[in-house]
Amino acid sequence: MMNMDISVTPNYSYIFDFENDFIHQRTRKWMVENWTWVFYYCGIYMLVIFGGQHFMQNRPRFQLRGPLIIWNTMLSMFSIMGAFRTAPELIHVLRHYGLFHSVCVPSYIEQDRVCGFWTWLFVLSKLPELGDTIFIVLRKQPLIFLHWYHHITVLIYSWFSYTEYTSSARWFIVMNYFVHSVMYSYYALKAARYNPPRFIAMLITSLQLTQMIVGCAINVWAHGFLKTHGPQSCNISQTYINLSIAMYFSYFVLFARFFYKTYLSPDGNKIRRMAASLAAQNTAKLSTNSNGDDGNRNANNKKLDINADLTMANHMHKAKAQ
């Protein structure tokens, strides 16, 4: 039997037992008591990734194609499920209560057990998502600043936000779930040796840029609501707004720079053409190997390795969005 205030929750067609059993007070208490551990996790993360790069410097790269397929598939399924379970609440609130409620009232946790449960999972998921970088290090792929900076700041931001039940976070959660559902699905297909059209990669970065613009806009609205309605009317602090705008703006600048260098700049196009030409040359050479089928397999593997390098260099979208 549901125990929810249906006036501020959508009419879910089905609610799982583990969602209905969610008690937000317990999770908030745990997070308030433990959220500062996130700084230790970030410190360990930095040691692992940069120490790992040093360790792998003179060692052959790992392929890890199978684990990578499983990893990306699991994260894509999780993100898709999260998007489907949180988006209805945001849409319902916007339709029936308007923008102010969506930005200033944390009913998505306090009165909606479904959205609250997936909000809790969203916050926790930022810790295991650090594993994205482990694959980059072990496969000796380019590790750009945007990637690890984004991972660290999102982790800290998410855990801290949950301690305050930041009301505007419902927007960020839904957007992040949606973008990650597309992004991880794309990477799962790439790891499984499928080649989605190039415009999909551009679409993902465009979605991430849109996410950053909306994130800044939500914070501007929150600031306006605090000014016009008073600090007691909106469950968000001015300090949080300032930090959030700074973070989202920095993301926008970094993603915009990445988009330009990857898809628009002449140098980016030249690199892609050279890599494609090199892949074709190696395939042609190795396919004539006297070992017959073994030669063909080697050629295919070589081509895939080169394509993997190009993909990671050009489409480092795992510097996720939030």
Automatic annotation (TrEMBL):
Q: What is its main location?
A: membrane
The answer on whether this UniProt entry bears the keyword Membrane reads yes
Instruction: Write down the chemical reaction(s) this protein catalyses.
Output: a very-long-chain acyl-CoA + malonyl-CoA + H(+) = a very-long-chain 3-oxoacyl-CoA + CO2 + CoA
- GO MF, one example: fatty acid elongase activity
List, alphabetically, the PROSITE patterns matched. ELO (PS01188)
Enumerate the subcellular locations listed in this protein's record, separating them with semicolons: Membrane
Its Enzyme Commission number(s) read 2.3.1.199
According to its record, how does it sit in the membrane?
A: Multi-pass membrane protein
Q: Which sequence ranges are marked TM in the entry?
A: 38-56, 68-87, 145-162, 168-187, 199-221, 241-260
Keywords, ordered alphabetically: Fatty acid biosynthesis, Fatty acid metabolism, Lipid biosynthesis, Lipid metabolism, Membrane, Transferase, Transmembrane, Transmembrane helix
Q: Which InterPro entries match?
A: ELO_CS (IPR030457), ELO_fam (IPR002076)
Can you cite an annotated GO cellular component?
A: endoplasmic reticulum membrane
Class in the EC hierarchy, top level: transferase
Query: Looking at the Swiss-Prot or TrEMBL record, what is one Pfam family this protein matches?
Result: ELO
| UniProt entry tagged with the keyword Nucleotide-binding | no
**Gene Ontology biological process:** fatty acid elongation, monounsaturated fatty acid; fatty acid elongation, polyunsaturated fatty acid; fatty acid elongation, saturated fatty acid; sphingolipid biosynthetic process; very long-chain fatty acid biosynthetic process
The Swiss-Prot or TrEMBL record describes its family as follows: Belongs to the ELO family.
Q: What is this protein called?
A: Elongation of very long chain fatty acids protein
Name the source organism. Glossina morsitans morsitans
